[in-house]
Amino acid sequence: MKSFDEIKNWVLENLISYNTIEYLVWMLFTIIIIYVLRRIVRKRISDASVKYRAQKGVEILGLAIVIVLTISYFTGNVKNLNLIIGLLSAGIAITLQELILSIAGFLYIFILKVYKPGDRIEINGIKGDVIDIDTIYTTMMEIGQWVHSDNYTGRIVKLSNAFVFKGPIYNYSQDFPFIWDEINFPIRYGSDIELTKKIISDAASETLTDYVSSSKSKWAEIVNKYYIENAVLDSTIAVSLTDNWTQFNLRYIVDYKKRRITKDTLYEKVGRAIQATNGAVKLASATFEIVDLPDLKINNTKQTNG
Question: Domains (ranges, CATH) in the chain?
Fold first, then answer.
């Protein structure tokens, strides 16, 4: 009868070989990695849809690695640990590509100063003021959408940092915190053209002087920093003729956060000044003029019963 030591040695030699230990270690390591990845996904991703897909991807990745390890062990091909490490790294990269892109986007935003908290930007069709930037998301207070002009909607938007690599980013405030805007004034034919120009010019000068003077120094910095031609910063008025009226187009520069209130002020001042002209200048609206009518023949004869 075999002694206990002989049985022990046989078990150690045949059941607990080096390859078996290696296989168990890799299995344990894979389980730990998958568990850690699931916790990271659950904590760092707030979007329910993205979180669900990422967690399912992690589970599929773990199952695939377990299958590869098991097949390799039973066929006796677990010889190169670098192969397993490579498969694990590739699987993680594919499964968590959105998360990796978001972290890369975070670094890109801060290193190149694409935008910062307080900037007004438009990205992926969403416009708003940047509230916060973390390693995964850019948080914005949304403007526009169903609300006219540049008013807040009240919605806070979380946008993945990965979008900085997927399309253009419009920054309203970086380097030059002013934008150009336009207003069209329809004036009836027969109104005093020169008086109309003076009314619009006076309103623009009274309302926009501070913006123009502040923007000139900023624009000089832009011209020196970038390869760009100089631009006209003073308000300009262009006159054009349409089918229904004479159109006066006022182009002006304004602080990017005061676009709506400035337009309201200009409309109010020009409207009051036009009313004070006692008919010398009149605002126009869409009208239709009947040029000619065909001749009409009316038969008014009565038939009598005999």
Answer: 4-95 (no CATH), 103-171 (2.30.30.60), 178-275 (3.30.70.100)
Threshold 0.85, pTM exceeds = no
| Model pLDDT, residue 98 | 76
Q: Which two three-digit tokens encode residue 113?
A: 């100063």
In Å, how far are 31, 120, 189, 222 from 74, measured between CA atoms?
19, 59, 93, 67
Blockwise average pLDDT, block size 10, the chain, 306 residues? 56 57 76 81 71 72 74 58 61 70 87 89 90 88 80 88 89 86 92 93 91 85 79 89 92 89 92 92 77 67 54
pLDDT at 47: 66
